[in-house]
Specification:
220 residues
Length: 220
């Protein structure tokens, strides 16, 4: 089985789980068009992708430049390509057009999701992941319902959860899992991280905002 076919195997069940309404919204995405073709009984009948850089050939030629993004609250399950790289800083653009910026694997901002993560400081959390856990501070900035910038300070606990196999779509690997539990006087969330033996974040589920909830991202 090729690396690309394994990716498609992950996109299909993820899209099916979103329900019919979400399938309609995904119809113009990479995963959504595959699902539409299967339901029509003719995968070849699916319309061609309209956005450059997200064809099956693009992903198959350079899978390391793509991640898989999943946002359950929005019914999103689609590939995202890297559009900027500067040291440990990476920015990915999803097939439907929103972007997510990461610093050494920590989500620091999103754009195009409506209620976005304007900024986040995960420096202390990243250090705790390297050290195997610990209690750390964290701050995030989001837009509230009045379009006002809201800065929230958290106390977080990073806990090691052992190792487990993780399906990345193109491969399955055993990774170390960590949970980051954060609380403030107005909000609480729980991030998940899966690290390889070198300490790199291979997959994560990180908080965006009250409306969007979590963005799950993993390498292919």
């Amino acid at each position: 089985m090729t690396r690309l076919s394994k990716v498609l195997g992950l996109l299909l069940p993820a899209a099916l789980l979103t329900g019919c309404g979400a399938l309609d919204s995904l119809r113009n995405t990479f995963g959504g068009q595959i699902v539409s073709g299967l339901f029509s009984g003719d995968q070849a009948a699916a319309p061609p992708l309209q956005r450059d850089g997200f064809t099956a050939a693009d992903i198959g030629a350079n899978p390391d430049a793509f991640h898989l993004f999943t946002i359950n609250a929005l019914g999103v399950a689609e590939p995202a390509r890297r559009i900027a790289l500067a040291g440990a800083n990476e920015t990915f653009e999803s097939e439907s057009g929103f972007t997510a910026a990461y610093q050494d694997g920590m989500l620091v901002a999103t754009h195009g999701l409506g209620f976005d993560l304007i900024a986040a400081d995960g420096t202390a959390t990243r250090a705790a992941l390297r050290q195997g856990g610990g209690d750390v501070p964290r701050t995030i900035e989001v837009m509230d319902s009045l379009d006002q910038l809201s800065r929230i300070e958290f106390r977080c606990s990073v806990t090691a959860n052992g190792s487990e196999p993780v399906n990345l779509g193109a491969r399955e690997v055993t990774l170390r899992k960590f949970t980051e539990s954060c609380t403030s006087n107005v909000l609480a969330f729980e991030n998940l991280f899966w690290l390889d033996a070198a300490g790199a974040i291979v997959a994560s589920r990180q908080y965006v905002s009250p409306t969007v909830a979590y963005l799950r991202s993993n390498r292919l």
